[in-house]
């Protein structure tokens, strides 16, 4: 795992050659312990780092990001938290079903609409958002929604993305692609303006 510019947040990634982007997982320190968000399969070094930390829960931002949730839940004896709309279609046992506005160890659940799965959400706190499939960080420094054919309702998805602007998000930690530090608000605005022709 590597530290990020944000105190208390570390990441580990895997290159996906078929998608030409990195997939990312996040380890977030909280007063209650560490949250593993959308955890990829950890290697020995990742596990050694986590073994030395107090682990609190695994958070899965949508049903397609289970990844290694079951592995970490079993290893550390911690619960899995996932969105209520997706929980029934997941393989892993979901111990807490998250809804819009829920508190997750000091982070707020912000649910989206119109995305690939009905449960897609972000964790938001103090200008930082952690998302799963909602946004792709490609090319580096920019953001885009996944292709319209993968979205349940592209127009609703774009409108729903504005929730992060309302939260004044400046750092966006994406599950796919490169995270955007310091200028996520501008990148989100540019992404949405491009879809609406600037209007």
In short:
The chain is of the alpha/beta class and about 200 residues long. About 25% of the residues lie in helices and about 30% in strands.
The CATH topology label is: Metallo-beta-lactamase, Chain A
- The percent range for strand residues is 25-35%
Q: Number of helix segments? A: 5
Oligomer: single chain
Biggest sheet overview? 7 strands, mixed
Sequence stretches where pLDDT stays below 50 over 5 or more residues: none
How many strand elements?
14
The appropriate CATH architecture is 4-Layer Sandwich
CATH class descriptor: Alpha Beta
Question: Can you give keywords for this protein?
Answer:
Metallo-beta-lactamase, Chain A; alpha/beta; 199 residues
What does it look like?
With 199 residues, this protein is of the alpha/beta class. It has a single domain, classed as Ribonuclease Z/Hydroxyacylglutathione hydrolase-like (Metallo-beta-lactamase, Chain A, 4-Layer Sandwich). The protein has helices at 44-51, 69-76, 84-87, 154-166, 184-196, and strands at residues 2-3, 9-16, 21-30, 33-37, 55-59, 80-83, 96-98, 103-104, 107-111, 121-125, 128-131, 136-137, 171-173, 176-177. It has a 7-stranded mixed beta sheet with strand order 1-2-3-4-5-6-7. A 5-stranded mixed beta sheet has the order 8-9-10-11-13. Helix 4 (154-166) runs antiparallel to helix 5. The protein is globular. The model has no long low-confidence stretch (mean pLDDT 93).
